Every structure is written in structure tokens, then in C-alpha cells.
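User: Okay, second chain of the day. Same drill as before: sequence in, C-alpha cells out.
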Amino acid sequence: MRILTRVLLIVTLWLPGIGAAETVSQRGAALAQTCVTCHGPEGRSQGAIPSLTTLSAADIMTALQAFRAETRPSTVMHRIAKGLDDADITAVATYFATLPRR
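Assistant: Same drill. C-alpha cells below.
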């Protein structure tokens, strides 16, 4: 009985983490739809604009935070990043980091 109780406790504690990860991923995928206009489908640009799938999550987060703070030069990204809070930035960066690199 003690083993069953421990297994149930472990599963109970583990499942909320899975749900949180799925929520971040879903939020990131939804927010990423804004990016496809310039950065291409699934963040894979065919032009001069950088492909997001070549960047790490940390690089994307750093760039978005700099755009939001207006410390990194940009034409459009300042306005887009201003609408993102830290959780949004993490979600978008996580989403692009999970896509296959190309």
C-alpha cells in the first residue's frame, strides 16, 4: 500500500508540470503566428530577415527583451515586443526553440 501511495503522489506532482509545459507551448505557438509575416512559416525566413529557428531560446529572449526596451535597433520589432510580457517572450522563444533547425 505504501508503494502505491508513493506512485500516486509522484504522478500527481508530475502531471501539473506537463500541463504547464503544454500551456507554454500552446501560448508560444499562438503568439508565433504574428512572426510568420516577416520571419516566414514556422520562423524560417527566405529573405534578409533572420530565421528564428536558427536561434536558441536564450537568443530570442534576449533579442525580444532588447527590442521591448528599445536598446536594439529595429523598424517594427519595438512595437511588436512592447505588447509582450516576460511570460509571452518565454513562450515564443520556447516555441521556436522546439522547432527543427534549418
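DSSP finds five helices and no strands in the chain.

User: Thanks, on to the next one.
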